[in-house]
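[Q] Does anyone have a clean structure-token version of this?
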Amino acid sequence: MSDQPWQREAREERGWPGGQLAPRADPSWPDAPARPAVGRAWPLLLITLIAVLYPFEYDTGLTNYSLGDAVVGPVAVFVVLQSLVRLVGWPRYTVQLLALVVVAIASSLVNAFSPAIYFSAPSALGETAKLFSAGLWMCVMFWLLSDDFSRGFYQLACASALLATGFAASSLWVTVRETSDYRPTGPFDNTNLYASYLCLNVFLVLGAREALEDLRRTRRRLPALLRWPGPLLGPVMLPLLLLGILATASRGALVGCVAGFVLSGSLRLRRISRPRLAALVGGLVFLGMTGTWYVRQDPLVLRRLESTAEGSGPNIENRLELWHAGREAFATHPILGVGYGQLRNYVELATGNNKPVHQTFISMGAELGAVGLLVFLWLLFTVVRDTMPAQSPRYPEVARACRGFVIAIVTQGLFTNVQHSRALWMIVGVIAVLAAEGRASPVLGETPAILARGPVWPRRGELGS
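[A] Here you go.
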């Protein structure tokens, strides 16, 4: 095999020591048809824990936390310490993350030494901590999925979708039987976060099909607990998740989900196998029947959509006032903004309304100025670009599903704040793995690029070294 300079550069970017070619015949290599080593079982366990604990998220006022942080934090510390003694790959979007953190710190420092009566140091520290911790979810997801992507992604999708489907079914029942004006929040403290979580699982289900097909094609073994959800992903889970989003009456999530389906190409007609066609027809029938029953109950979402179409309602008028105040803050502080985490205080002084602006791009522009907004747009552009077919040749369906969710949550960001969403940064971590595969695939030919990388997790025999 040729060893050109550009090939060595790509291998070094993937974290292979000295840019050396990966071994092919070594039976201890992760791609060999052998029993998974002890060291590689830990990423799968950690992925499951993150999928189960992530939705239990709570707001303390100054910041928020998820039970999944108890897993993400130690894993991040472990890998960072490991990077001091051995080469560890990092997501390609780490540059944008660090740039955002630097701009946030600079914006806070500039405004801290100005005579701004709205500035609050605890708010600045809390928002910067939110951004940094959300970015850690990207890094940890990248590290956990890098060694065995198809198995890890399928396990993430199944564990998360099973839990989310239960919450969605419960929300449908509660909104119909208890009160038609109730907006469910699931395990979250916020309806919009809950709707984003359900939307995330919609697209995880769409991507899980290809990961499962890859496992079957390579004759990879799955535990019984992961085999039975496969046939239910499309016909049962997907319709219930979509109806769960409807039950939240979150207009931003509804519009975002539609935009994600349409703009990502998920609705494009393609040749599919008979089993998948049967699952599609079954899912559409189940969705039609359940959706018809739910709409006949006169749910809150219908009334909210009607008021939105009429352009009336206190919620809409309040949002427009907040957006106007946010644009004024950006106009008066166009370079570095009013300070990270300070927009709420600024708006309260201007309008007497102590609420978030509920618009991601206005918030980023007002708090971080044009510099921070451009860095954030750079991140989003790079992420979407890396999901295009030419960039992710091995898992095009997974890439399409990830692209759909990024489009969905960015669209939802037009109506709420999503820059700290753990769901967004998790999927960015997944896309980072796909992008690394796309970059390294010409180097190894038929060898799966992500498996040829030096693993973050030691294999059997390396644990004591």
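[Q] Thanks! Anything notable?
[A] The longest strand covers residues 57-59.
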